[in-house]
Amino acid sequence: MQKRSEYNLSKKKQKKRIFIRSMICICLFFILVSTYITLNKWSRHGVNDSEKQFVENSNLEDILSEMKKSSKFSTGIVDKNFIDYYLNKIHFNGTALVVKDGKIVVNKGYGFANQEENIKNNPNTVFYIGSITKSFVATSIMQLAEEGKINVQDPLSKYLPTFPHAKQIRLIHLLTHTSGIPRRNESGGKLSRDELMKSISQSARHLTSLPGTKWNYSDSNYSVLGYVVEKASGVPLHQYIKEHIFKVAGMKNSGFGKALKKETFPSIGYKKVWGLTYTPRMIEFSQIFGCGDIYTTAYDLYKFDHALVNGKLVSQKSYHQIFTPHNRANYGFGWYINRKGWYSGSGNNSNHGVIPGWNSANSFSKNENMYVVLLSNIQNNNKSIGKVNKEIYTFLIDVPKKIIGKS
To answer: Are residues 31 and 102 in the same domain?
Structure first.
């Protein structure tokens, strides 16, 4: 008995030693990987956290005071100088376009489109815009509605008769994220259109709420709407958007999915976690059909906004429907209206998109005289792109007044 007890004790000690050694090896491995990433990537394109913290914790007066110390300061072009100074200060990485009263204030690239090859972002760099894609699909739906091919009150059963709860779910529920269709895992492999609808159908067997009663953001709503566009128009969704939106708005540097790599100025997506930057795994674009597969430039996205405002894409009636909030989230058709934390002044219309490696914001003011487009290829580089968006509106509205008042 004593020998067996000693044997068991020895075996436990041996297992403990193996466990400790394994943990040490794992820790050393992560330390080596972290050091490699830091030395080879982050050390070349790093962010000074103390400087970034200054901007995130300061108010308008603090930034104005700091900017006035800069040699670039000029009251004559305060909007441009101020926004450029701010974006540099927070180490924004991407392309920013700001338009005020019909004049371009900023149209500039910041940081790197490709860190490994030291290729900088520029005004013509293309970025994936994630969920901003939804605003293009919503516009397509409204165009087809104006042609009498679709009615937003149509039941889904008209286009997908075997879809669960299709008689209760209406197109307007899909447009406003009130269908009750839950979110699904989008990390799988390539799917055909029918396979995607089958996957969404399976997740929609059990709705999160009765259609039309509660807001629940789900990409699946807009994938289904993309399918509806194809059914009603008779052409693939991508072809429809190219012909009826890109072409009409003059968007010459926009497209879908993997075609981004063929563009003259492509961007590579990065993700920041715990102060380290890496390239995340690319999502399979057939999984985000209709809800996140468009890429574009900041200027092209502004052209889309401007075409909407000027009636080139939809009628005034459709425009009003798109930008009318339909739920507690102030969500219209593919857009947020006066989204909390995203605007200053009289308010704005905005949308936001994220896919692994890219983070984008698109907005214009309610009086339609200011546009702010921010496309970034480092996910999580700035704590809140919505806050950056709001700060720029604050600058455009308040800074000139403060400068004039002190001159």
So the answer is: no
- DSSP states of 2-54: HHHHHHHHHHHHHHHHHHHHHHHHHHHHHHHHHHHHIIIIITTS---HHHHHH
- 82 domain-assigned: no
Taking the chain (407 residues) in runs of 10, the rounded mean pLDDT of each run is 48 61 67 47 32 42 61 52 88 95 94 97 98 98 98 98 97 98 94 96 96 96 98 98 98 97 97 88 96 98 97 98 93 94 83 96 91 94 84 79 45
Is pTM beyond 0.85? Reply is no
pLDDT confidence of residue 28: 64
Backbone φ, ψ for residue 243 (5° rounding): -80, -35
- Rounded CA-CA distance 348/305 in Å is 12
Amino acid at 156: L
Residues 301 and 375 reside in one and the same domain: yes
Residue 2 forms part of a structural domain: yes
Calpha distance 97→396 (Å, rounded): 13
CA dist., res. 370 & res. 272, Å (int): 30
Q: Quick one: DSSP state of residue 181?
A: P
Q: Which SS3 state, helix, strand or coil, does residue 197 take? A: helix
Domain membership of residue 39 as a residue range: 1-43
AA letter at 86: Y
Same domain for 376 and 229, yes or no, is yes
Domain check: are 219 and 363 in the same one?
A: yes
The structural domain count of the chain equals 2
119 within some domain: yes
